[in-house]
Amino acid sequence: THDVVFTDRPKTAAGSAKRLESYEYIRREEVLALLGDLYRGGAGASRVVVLKDYLSTVSLNVITRMVMGKKYLEKEVRDEAGAVITTPDEFKWMIDELFLLNGVLNIGDSIPWLDWMDLQGYIKRMKKLSKMFDRFLEHVVDEHSERRRRQGESFVVKDMVDVLLQFASDPGLEVKLNREGVKAFTQDLIAGGTESSAVTVEWALSELLKKPEVLAKATEELDRVVGRGRWVTEKDMSSLPYVDAIVKETMRLHPVAPMLVPRLSREDTSINGYDIPAGTRVLVMVWSIGRDPELWEAPEEFMPERFFGSRLDVKGQDYELLPFGSGRRMCPGYSLGLKVIQVSLANLLHGFTWRLPDGVELSMEEIFGLSTPRKYPLEAVVEPKLPAHLYAEA
After folding, report:
1. What pTM value is reported for the model?
2. Would you indicate the residue range of the signal peptide (predicted)?
């Protein structure tokens, strides 16, 4: 109702559904690589695996290929003079640090006169990260701009940075996009797309390990719809309502951003009898909405069945379930995030059996910040259950 009041920047299109579909081959290749890596990394020998490591890699590879045109976890990035811009370890550290620092409660944000003291050391860390990330993004933009200049008339858009640079060079664009905007958008796409997928899939499998009967129903649906002779594709997802319900239920209980991204009121307004002055920071607590007993029956229970026969969706129209937000400031990559989460989870359930190591009781503690990952990474014994040649192809 008050969306316009609480948005502090105009909507900018960074892509389209059609372009998203054109990148399906990237998502397919990286999910297959995940399954092959998991098989070779321990599942083939029924060893314990730390799932988050694999999920973060596939998410990061999908995002960087779609956004910047290549992977950044395989080798060092160097400039034309041969100087190292970033290493795979540095790149992963930057992503982790970016998410951590975006979620911390910095005292100076709430008590401005204390800001200069940097009591928690966050400002110092932010400045270091900002310098490193800016150097990397400058290289990415330069590299894309040079390819565009070099190819001239024959230039073809390959990735999202190309799309953003095309927007930036359009003189007729109502909302101007400059170089800093291109870098900021690129950073948002990388960070937002990486953490959300990995965290959600890890929570989904955690909940399923605590509810074997739900896991059995999902496996039955996959065997019936897909069969055991191939992997699951994005086109299968519309025929897998139970897997879809598991994803929605996971997002209800474990939203990636428990308080969404902060908003700022543009003008004085009044909501439910409360006067909200212009310039007020506003947080939407979707974590609490998803556990509200007035909205949900047995809210602490993991019950995917609650979404059967329900029109509730995660697209921002149903205010009981807002994992990606709503309105003009809704997550621009929600469609991509959903696709990666659904097809990753479906294939992990389809290709492997899952159980906890002997004698292990699963903790469901979470870390509360910008995102809510598990406090302790999920460790599970994973065994392949499809024909061996499928893993060899992955």
Report:
1. 0.86
2. none
At residue 228, does pLDDT exceed 80?
yes
What would the 3-class secondary structure string for 87-110 be? CHHHHHHHHHHHHHHHHCCCHHHH
Q: What is the mean predicted confidence (pLDDT) over 354-380?
A: 89
Question: Using CA atoms in the order 314, 319, 320, 321, what is the torsion angle rounded to 10 degrees?
Answer: 20
Buried b / exposed e over 15-39, threshold 16 CB at 10 Å, is beeeeeeebeebbeebbbbbbbbbb
Mean pLDDT (whole number) for 363-368: 89
Please indicate if the annotation marks 331 as binding a ligand. yes
- For 194, other C-beta atoms within 10 Å of its C-beta total 27
376-379-380 Cα angle (round to 5): 150
- Sign for the CA dihedral angle at 228, 230, 233, 235 comes to negative
Measured between alpha carbons, how far is 111 from 67 in angstroms, rounded to an integer? 37
Q: What pLDDT, in 10s, does the model give residues 176-210? A: 889 999 998 888 888 777 777 899 999 999 999 99
Cβ–Cβ under 8 Å, residues 264 and 280: yes
Q: Which value, to the nearest 10 degrees, does the dihedral of the CA atoms of residues 336, 238, 315, 286 take?
A: -90
Q: Are 133 and 72 in contact (CB under 8 A)?
A: no
Residues facing residue 268 across a β-bridge: none
Task: Supply the pLDDT for residue 336.
Answer: 78
CA distance 328 to 319: 15
- pLDDT confidence of residue 43: 65
Question: Which pLDDT value is given to residue 371?
Answer: 78
Share of the chain above pLDDT 90, in %: 52
284, 286, 285, 266: which is closest to 276 by C-alpha? 266
Supply the Cα-derived Rg of the chain in whole angstroms.
Answer: 22
> Using one digit for the tens of pLDDT, what is the confidence trace for 287-312?
999 999 999 999 999 999 999 888 88
Q: Which residue has the tokens 């230039």?
A: 155
Q: How far apart are the first and last CA of the chain?
A: 47
Domains of the chain and CATH, by start: 35-51+196-393 (1.10.630.10)
DSSP string across 136-186: HHHHHHHHHHHHHHHHGGG----SHHHHHHHHHT-TT-SS---HHHHHHHH
